[in-house]
Amino acid sequence: MRVRVDQDSCQGQQMCSIAAPEVFGSDELGHATVLIEGDLPEHLHAKTRRAQANCPEDAIIIEE
Ligand code: SF4
After folding, report:
1. For the whole model, what pTM was predicted?
2. Under a CB-based contact definition with an 8 Å cutoff, are residues 60 and 51 in contact?
3. Which CATH code of 3.40.50.1980, 3.40.710.10, 3.40.50.150, 3.30.70.20 fits the domain covering 2-63?
4. Which pLDDT does position 13 carry in this prediction?
5. Ligand 1 atom closest to Cα of residue 32
6. Ligand 1 atom closest to Cα of 12?
């Protein structure tokens, strides 16, 4: 599983970094960044899916 953030959609509420702080950070403008390059470790998949489900802007894109 890989994850990325659509920066045009992200509004920076940071719910993703609360749900999955190992996976999501924020840039200087408060927009989400992905902290892990490439495939996410298995133990972070569920948290990442939860973050995607809770993103109010549908800005989190998961590629299986
Ligand atoms: S929850 Fe969604 S809109 Fe909010 S910072 Fe994360 S990716 Fe951006």
Report:
1. 0.95
2. yes
3. 3.30.70.20
4. 83
5. 5
6. 5
